[in-house]
Specification:
The protein is mainly alpha-helical and 468 residues long. The chain has 19 helices and ten strands. It has helices at residues 21-24, 38-42, 57-63, 70-75, 77-83, 91-94, 100-118, 127-152, 184-198, 214-227, 231-244, 251-262, 301-304, 312-317, 344-357, 361-373, 389-403, 409-420, 451-455, and strands spanning 165-169, 180-183, 271-272, 282-284, 318-323, 326-331, 333-334, 342-343, 427-431, 434-438. A two-stranded antiparallel sheet has the order 1-2. It has a two-stranded parallel sheet with strand order 3-7. It has a two-stranded antiparallel sheet with strand order 4-8. It is globular and about 60 Å long. The protein starts with 20 loop residues before the first helix and ends in a 13-residue tail after the last helix.
């Protein structure tokens, strides 16, 4: 898809303040046009390299889902602190760069605000067409806020959500728009309201993979409600999403078709990624942090060992490699990767978790095994069977973490489970004779705001959510 740039795109300036599109458009540069038609505003949804990119690099580093080279860890001090779970490091001080997770997310929100403010009064479109674009922008804005609140604020806990601060809420693209650092509860209420507004107008079939459809709206609702530990509503919307799209991609067939290339010893010739715009599992497609490149991230040996034996998806994506003193699993796919959107496999596993928590273990495992049959090679496959809720849930969590590796979701799930206190997530590793651990109650599970945002919060205030 073509990356569409408009010179009138609201650019992020000091802290969280945005350039006023209204003021800018008072003096349009020669050779450029003022957006007036619906197509002019809809083009912002297609700006995939700005508005459809989701960067959660430091969360991935904390999870150790991405391999970091010796050179990376020597140079990037914040990365090293998260990768080695250094609780003594002052990450607030180390986070001096203009972090893409923060600024990129708010740049996208500025564009979505612009669409929401103007779409319904544009020209050259029917009322129905206007409402569709307006609704799509509402969903994408909500998705950006969900990513932000699950990165820079503590996870949702009903008893404390009304007292703990989250992230700044901005609903206007104007330069003087006030920003208020709302509570976690207020932010979740806003996210849910945005999707509720959008659902009646979302089309069943997307204009492109970048445009959220009705299935995407239901799927995102399921994700949000799961994060709020509302399993009844999460299950309800998971069912609605799967009614729109329940397709699963057959990774065992992909591996078989490409086995002659994949299995060549010491060869790292890539095969095409099926996880692009036309991936059958997509509800909506959004890039991760590698928007401009056509490869995904390498992963550490320890992380590779957490995949099931015979996992065709893993075997098709990474292969062990040693370069000098470093050994890791190198990526072997090239193409596009839906690391920021939503896919059916996530919704299958959300539904499975909800059913397991309700005591419907057999039904939950039926869904889990439905997913696994498209992933695990027949020679290695066995149904997971148990009547124990904890065993079933742990199997669901393991599969979900593997399926959604390199996205925000394993990080968000870990925070949710740690807050619940029953299925806690912690990590331990030994490197060069030193043992490193990440406890379930570590302050590292909440990322600090970049210093620039705190020092220059625009028309509002911004309080750091962690001490270090």
């Amino acid at each position: 898809m073509k990356n569409i740039y408009y010179s009138i795109l609201c650019l992020l300036v000091a802290g969280i303040t945005f350039t006023s599109c209204d003021n800018y458009l008072d003096d349009v540069p020669k050779g450029y046009k003022t957006p007036t038609t619906l197509a002019d505003f809809e083009a912002f949804l297609r700006d995939e390299y700005t508005n459809q990119s989701v960067n959660v690099e430091q969360a991935v580093n904390l999870m150790n889902d991405r391999y970091r080279t010796i050179a990376d860890l020597a140079y990037y001090r914040l990365t090293k602190a998260n990768y080695y779970w250094d609780e003594t490091a002052d990450r607030v001080v180390l986070n001096q760069a203009d972090e893409t997770t923060y600024y990129g997310s708010y740049a996208g929100i500025a564009s979505f605000n612009l669409i929401i403010e103007n779409a319904l009064t544009t020209t050259e479109a029917t009322e129905e067409q206007k409402r569709v674009v307006w609704a799509e922008a509402k969903v994408l804005r909500a998705m950006n806020y969900f990513n932000l609140v699950n990165f820079y604020a503590d996870t949702y806990v009903a008893s404390t959500a009304s007292t703990k601060l989250s992230v700044p809420l901005i609903t206007s693209a104007d330069i003087n728009a006030p920003s208020k650092q709302v509570t976690i509860q207020e932010m979740y209420d806003f996210i849910l309201a945005d999707v509720k507004d959008a659902l009646p107008y979302l089309p069943k079939v997307s204009q492109t993979a970048l445009h959220p459809n009705l299935g995407a709206g239901y799927a995102f609702y399921a994700r949000v409600y799961l994060q709020m530990n509302n399993y009844t509503e999460a299950l309800k919307y998971a069912d609605l999403a799967l009614a729109e799209n329940n397709q699963l991609y057959d990774w065992t067939a992909y591996y078989t078709a490409n086995k002659a290339v994949i299995d060549v010893p010491n060869s790292y010739t890539t095969t095409p990624s099926p996880m692009g715009y036309n991936y059958v599992e997509n509800y909506t497609f959004r890039h991760g942090d590698l928007t401009y490149l056509n490869v995904e991230r390498n992963i550490p040996i320890a992380r590779a060992q957490r995949f099931e034996a015979g996992d065709a998806r893993f075997l098709s994506r990474w292969k062990i490699r040693t370069v000098g003193a470093e050994t890791y699993y190198r990526t072997t796919l090239s193409g596009m990767f839906n690391f920021g959107g939503i896919t059916t496999v996530e919704i299958y596993l959300i539904k499975a978790e909800c059913l397991a928590r309700a005591g419907q273990i057999s039904d939950a495992l039926g869904l889990l095994n439905t997913v696994r049959k498209t992933r695990i090679l027949p020679a290695s496959y066995q149904d997971i069977t148990t009547t124990d809720k904890t065993t079933a849930l742990n199997a669901i969590f393991k599969t979900k973490n593997n399926e959604l590796i390199l996205t925000l979701i394993p990080f968000a799930d870990a925070r949710r489970l740690n807050a619940e206190g029953v299925y806690k997530v912690s990590f331990s590793k030994v490197e060069n004779g030193t043992t490193y651990t990440l406890s379930s109650d570590s302050h590292l599970w909440t990322m600090p705001f970049p210093q620039g945002a705190v020092k220059n919060p625009g028309n509002g205030t911004l309080t750091q959510n962690v001490a270090k």
